[in-house]
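Raw record, unedited: Opacity protein-like surface antigen
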Amino acid sequence: MRNIVFVILATALAQPVLAENSSSFSAGWYGDIHLGQTGTSLKQGEQSFDFLSIGGSYGYQYNEYFAAEFFGSFATDGEHDDIMSAILGQEAKVKFDAIGAYLVGKTHGKYYLKARVGLINSRFTYSAGGFEDETGSDTGFSYGFGAGVSLEKVNIELNYLQFPDVDDPLFNSTSYESDQLTISIGTQF
């Protein structure tokens, strides 16, 4: 936890080094869409999945350094699960989604750093034809960091997020760790 607080404070304190012209700031709403890779792996075992994810965030930038945002990320398609497919005798797929809210610390300037801390609901779902979907869901602490460039009316960012662990919906003694690397494009309204 101290490391997370340190990252947020360091991001805010780095502002004088990265700022170019702080007089151009105006508070307001912003939004972005992202495309990324979400990695999910069993904490106890060798099984892991990689999902192509799409999502976005919508938030309010209160001042040059702090914002609050809603966030969502959804797997574009399910990944094949070899173990469940062998047990069921047919193809079984898994998906990972995440929704929640973050507090954001950000430096000001054309090039900037960003740190996020928040509360996220992680969902891990099994699906197979002829069976009802099974979903495990856990809400918990999430954090991340990123870097971006602010162009005329568009921001482009590269972000890393660590999501809360989620219990396997079929095997309660196991849980999945998940993280995400995304590229996003956004604008202020």
